[in-house]
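Troubleshooting log. The previous structure file for this entry was overwritten by mistake, so regenerating from the original sequence record. Sequence copied from the archived sheet and checked twice against the printout by T.R.
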Amino acid sequence: MQKYISLNQNKDFLRLYYRGKSCARPAVVVYAMKNRAGICRVGITTSKKIGNAVERNRSRRVIKAAFTQVLSENTINGNWDFVFVARSKTRYVKSTKLALIIKECLEQTGVIK
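Regenerated output below.
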C-alpha cells in the first residue's frame, strides 16, 4: 500500500483547481495533477453546503476510506496531488460505492490503468 500525506497549503489547492485534470460525479469531484514532491498528497474539501459539522466530517471520513481502499487495490503511476471535493450526495454514499466512483475518476484522468 502506498503512503500519502495531506495537502495543507491554499496555493496547492488552487493550483489543482486551475491546472489539474478533473472528473466530476454526483457524489465527488476529483482533481489530479503530477507533482515533484516524491509522494502522493491528498486534500479533501467539504463546504457548508454539505450540511452541519457531523455530516461534513462523515463525508471526509468516507472519502478518506474510499481512497485508501483504491490505493490498496491499485498502484498509482508516479507521484500525484489529489483534491477530493465532497458534494451533497457524498454523505449518503457508502465508502465501497464511493471507492468505485473514485477508481473510475482516477482511470479517466490517467492516474491508474
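Strands lie at 4-6, 21-24, 28-34, 40-45, 80-86. Archived copy saved in two places this time.
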